Amino acid sequence: MSAPPDHHAAPVLRVAHADLAPYHDQRWARVCPTCREGLLLARRDLTLLILAEDLCTRCGQRVCYTDVARLREADGPGPEPDGIESGDFELP
Questions:
Q1: Does any domain span residue 37?
Q2: CA 37 remoteness from chain centre
Q3: Which of 4, 16, 56, 62 is deepest in the core (most CB within 10 A)?
Q4: How far apart are CA 72 and CA 70, in angstroms?
Q5: How many other C-beta atoms can be found within 10 angstroms of the C-beta atom of residue 30?
Q6: Residue 57 falls within a domain, yes or no?
Q7: Could you give the 3-state DSSP secondary structure of residue 54?
Q8: Is residue 19 a part of any domain in this protein?
Q9: Cβ(19)–Cβ(32) under 8 Å?
Q10: Residue range of the domain that includes 69
Q11: Cα dihedral sign, 30-1-61-41
């Protein structure tokens, strides 16, 4: 495997996450549209909110998701586990 191209300084690509090729059966991972070998993993901030900006794991190409609002909506909270209701726990 050769060294990956370096796209860290390349202009940011504006792309729709929905238009990118998914990586196998992964919900959020997408194949990099630039090098076709790296992944875009839908980066998150400290509160686990999906960020609009992402970075290829191989070539460093930066992208900005034009559909980040849709991604965040689809990533909303899931159902509570069986037998647990919201508010059942008290924080110290």
A1: yes
A2: 16
A3: 56
A4: 5
A5: 23
A6: yes
A7: strand
A8: yes
A9: no
A10: 13-74
A11: positive
Q: Do residues 46 and 55 touch, judged by C-beta distance below 8 A? A: no
Look-up: residue for tokens 């609002």? 69
Contact 32, 62 (CB under 8 A): no
Query: Is the entire prediction scored with pTM above 0.85?
Result: no
Cβ-based burial of 17 (10 A; exposed 0-12, middle 13-18, buried ≥19): buried
Contact 32, 39 (CB under 8 A): yes
Residue 80: is its pLDDT beyond 80?
A: no
Per-residue tokens: 79: 């159902």
Q: What's the domain count of the chain?
A: 1
pLDDT digits (tens, 9 = 90+) for 13-45: 999 999 999 999 899 999 999 999 999 999 999
Residue 49 in any domain: the answer is: yes
Contact indicator for 6, 18 with CB cutoff of 8 Å: no
